[in-house]
Every structure is written in structure tokens, then in C-alpha cells.
Amino acid sequence: MLPIDTLEHTEPGESPAAGLVFQRCLWCGMPAYRRSFCRACGSVAFRRERSAGDGIVLRRHGHVPHNTWFVAMNEGFNLLCRATGTVPVTVGSRVSVVEAASALGQELPTVAATRPPSAAERWW
């Protein structure tokens, strides 16, 4: 079994999104976020990569006061996160990671809308 590095650090001067780290399966290349095994092939061998931190909102999760959303990140994995900011987040909104969750904590990453969805990007 490969050793697991659980410490993730953001260097001074880096953007908060630089702290969002995801996993990529060494066998099939499937991206994942905080998984113990690959959903596609069952492998437990992952390499860690930094995410660009951009994605699109898929759907709301839970009640409105919690403001949690599922986001499809550009790298190919889905992320459950909290939304913040002055621009309202809706399904189809483009978002960027504002604050990544700590490696050992249970909190969710925080995203903010970069732009609302255009009429062509709305799928409801």
C-alpha cells in the first residue's frame, strides 16, 4: 500500500484555490476528491494534483440556510461545497474556489460565483 500524505499547505502569496487538492487514480486516471478508493476501477493508488479551482454548479444540496451545492470541477470531479459572495449562486453558475478545506478538517470548501449562467447554459 502507498503511504498517504495528509498534510496540505498553501504557501504565502498563493491564491486560496491553490490549496484545493484532488486525487487522480494511478491505474485509470479517474479524478476524485477525498476518496479512499477509485470509483471506476477500485484501486487505492492515487497521486495528488492541485485544482485550478473553477467549476459549474450542478444542483443544491440540503436546505437553503446551509447554502451547500454540488459543483462539477473542470478537472472532472464533483465537489460538495458552501457558496458565498455577493453574486447569487444558481444552477449553471460558474464558480471559483475561495477557500479550500483543510486536509484534516470536516469543513467544506467555499466557492463564489464568478458569473451567473447564460440562457444557453441553463438546463432547467
Sheet with the most strands: spatial strand order: 4-5-6-8-7
Low-pLDDT windows of residues = 1-17
Q: Compute the gyration radius: what is it? A: 15 Å
SSE order: EEEEEEEE
- The helicity comes to under 10%
Q: How far do the termini sit from each other? A: 45 Å
Broad shape: globular
Structural class: mainly beta
Largest sheet: 5 strands, mixed, barrel
Provide a compact summary of the structure.
By secondary structure, the protein is mostly beta strands. The protein is built from no helices and eight strands. The protein has strands at 21-25, 31-32, 46-50, 54-61, 68-73, 78-84, 94-99, 110-115.
Reconstruct the topology from this structure.
Layout: E1 21-25, E2 31-32, E3 46-50, E4 54-61, E5 68-73, E6 78-84, E7 94-99, E8 110-115
Parallel strand pairs: 6-8
Antiparallel strand pairs: 1-2, 1-3, 4-5, 4-7, 5-6, 7-8
Could you walk me through the main structural features you see in this protein, from its secondary elements to its overall organization?
- The chain is mostly beta strands.
- Helix content is 0%, strand content 36%.
- The chain is built from no helices and eight strands.
- It has strands at residues 21-25, 31-32, 46-50, 54-61, 68-73, 78-84, 94-99, 110-115.
- The strands form two sheets. A five-stranded mixed beta barrel has the order 4-5-6-8-7.
- The radius of gyration is 15 Å and the shape is globular.
- The N and C termini lie far apart (45 Å).
- InterPro entries: NA-bd_OB-fold (IPR012340).
- This is DUF35 domain-containing protein.
